Amino acid sequence: MTVHASRTIYTGLSAIEARQRLVTFGPNALVPEAPSGGIRHVLVQVLTDPMSVLLVIASAVYLALGDVVDAVVTFAALLPIAAVTVVLELRGERALASLRRLAAPTALVIRDGVEQHVPALDVVPGDVLVVREGDVIAADGRLVSGTELVVDESTLTGESLPVTKTSAAGDADLFAGTTVLAGRATANVLTTGRATRYGAIGQLVASAEQPQTPLQALIRRLVVQLSIVAAVFCVAVVGIELWRGMDFASALIAGVSLAMAAIPEEFPMVFALYLGLGAWRLARDRALVRRLVGVETLGATSVICTDKTGTLTLGTIEVAALWTAPHASEGDLLRAAVLASEPRPYDPLDQAIVRFAAAHGTGVDELHAGELVRDHTFDTAERYLTHVWRHDGVLSAHAKGALEGIAGRGITGGEVRADAFAANERFAGQGMRVIAVASSTRVNEHGDRADDESQLALVGLVAFADPVRPGVAEALADCRAAGVRVIVITGDHPVTAKAVAESLGLAHVRVATGADLDAAEDEGLATLVSTVDIFARTRPEQKHRIVRALRAQGHVVAMTGDGTNDAPALREADIGIAMGRRGTDVARSAATLVLLDDNFATIVAAVRDGRRIFENLRRSFSYLIAFHAPLLVSALVVPLVGAPLLLLPIHLVWLELLVHPTASLVFESDQAADDLMRRPPRGRGTGLLDRGALAGLLARGLALTAGVLGLYLYALGSGASAEAARGLAVAALIFGQVLLVMIERAGDRLLWRVGLAGNRALVWILGATLGSLVLVEYVGPLASLLRLTPPSLGGWLVAAALAIATTCWTEALKLTHARRVATSAA
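The structure assignment produced for this chain is given below.
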């Protein structure tokens, strides 16, 4: 609907029209409500976990048998699983709430010819919006009247410099979520809510699903596969036990025990512990982890997409260089630039001029203490402005703006013109923004703008730059050494972005623009993201598209950013990294990792720790696989031979949810390998286990299994009770577990040469493991609950000897191999 200028400016909508349009167009809600998880979400996550289902079944069976204690204890084992679920799945997602907080809570509109404050939610298309300095604009609209408006649009565009808006120019569009730095104006509201540019970002943030990390996917796949196998064997064991004449409840307990032994519930538990400790270390090093899985993902990162402004640079405008005309000095240039700036500036360029001039001895306060006689606002055609001042009765005019605009009035000699334009081109090529400054003392008391500017003479050029952040160049070099590709994605001009990238050591960079992205189909986009180092003049949805294209090629993508415009890409990336000091609430809430010191070098440390965590997880999971063999085989074989179960569900809860995760922390405490950051990133599909080492792992596990199972059946055959035989076998099992941890930690090295060196946690953790064995064997209530009778002294010695014989035989193979190598070398 076309609104007449007179009505728009002076009358606006009536209250009745506004209410009708609110019904038609809906509230001006820029961001959709965030979905809530709540208790139902926790229950769904817990009760769909395979181990949780088995624990519920086992508890129900014990209850049906009248064994209330075992039923309660088994059901209570759900608590640690629920705790892990809450930590990993219900981390507060605050990106959408932050977007809503950033939007203006109220707006000033003209309705029924009167200015009035209304809730921002009630702004409708056709409203006349009044905007002033400091306002956050409530809706998208078109400027229709008012003074020159200076707007910060960096939250939408990523462009670090403010934008000047005038109703007479083609850049008169205003956008929701941007901030007015200076001026006052009225605008006709065109779109509200999700139809605005800001609302479109909110939609992207809401619709972008957070991807699973590579390791999460691997663990989930392994657990699902083993759960299927466990289900098949569970049904088979139940069927065999029923066929042998056992009652249904006992047969079901045997089947559930087998399934629990087969499912590696420790894997997600250990994964959560490792990530929690990694997050604690990163927080200590000034990096806050908002999603625990991000700790591991950093170690797999192959591409970092980084914003320029505020990430590679400090995000501030500073005077970087000066060029003076032949007849002027730097002092003349700085005085003229100060007088061409506002006395109490809001424009970042004016602020930078005043700071620089004051630091270089110019009396800024004295200059601005004069009388500002006339203020000729920004000429959008010529792109400059002029101020006329009076000092001690003397009038002078001072202008600043684009060199092209001032050149026609202030440059008289061909040589000076050539030098000025050459300097302008040189500064621009270095990624700087350049303004020209001109002055005149031939000013009439009652002259107009044409008179005031008729005698201007060029004084010089002032060049501005956004300084590179200290330490970034070194951090980027470390990323390259680690095989991590760096892509710069920015809203800035291509020349500026390229100059900054080259100053950071990114040589021979290739540049593309947002227009190139718009023109590219899927195949062309794949080529662009594979070959281009800098994407300039990009929009939020384009950043989002770049990240998706890189992930489609198999890359593990990290995206850094600090503005609202970065939020969709931060959520889409495998890991989003936000700046903590400069970043907006939106960026920080959408990110996985927040750099509290805004130091790009912190990313390198996080990548290193992520890689260390993965290597240690591989060794931890290798140990778990080896130790799962006794659990699985005993649960399968013992029912088939008609013997009482060696490991009941309560034993499996103790081992899989307490003992195993604790023992696995030994590997987490090991330091990173010296060459860890000189290796290429691991692929997205890299497995947790080394297939070449899997045979050795299973051989050690099966050897321990044969020994423990043989010891248990021998004790039963010798007339020992089930509790006594179980106590002896469990002792051998725990001794074997401690030795397996130490052997896996030693790797290809001889166990006695590695010992306990380099890991202060080893003694405490393995001591706690052996201590728990003593407790469950000798503390009456625990021994009764686990149905254990402690061995005699001779039994303890037999259990220890058996564990050593069935695990340390691999040390003899290592020693033999070492002697062969030594003999060959000689």
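Interim note for the steering committee: The two ends are 94 Å apart (CA to CA). The first strand starts at residue 106 and ends at 111.
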